[in-house]
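Record 1 of the preview.
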Amino acid sequence: MQTVEDWTCKLLQGNKRMIKQRIFFILLFLIPVVTYAEWTKIGKTSEGDTFYIDFKTIKKNNGYVYYWKMTDYLKPSKFGDMSSKMYEQAECSYPRYKFLSGIFYNESMGKGTGDSSIPKDQNWIYPPPESIGVEVIKTVCDYAK
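->
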């Protein structure tokens, strides 16, 4: 006959297994989006940084557009990064966006070692008119229509 302790132990082991399975499936669906993306060049900044969008990731929900953007830096950032992939939220009616999460790479075009980051402060960013930031927002919003 099983005791309450035996039953509790089996239940906890089952919950650990379920949590591991959920984490595995979340990673299984998230990683291919970033790793096997089809990046389309959107433009360059005056500093030489190139911006790309993966159009397959663009989704519209509750008036916002969500998408993955990759930036390939001409020169290493102050942290030594050569590229980044950012998951962003944009508002089309008023060109603004915010970073939801990102991965920073030590090689160009999202290659090499990547460090993921979720910003603590997810405030809206208002790109200046005629900037690559506005161009990215217009591009993803036009696609999401």
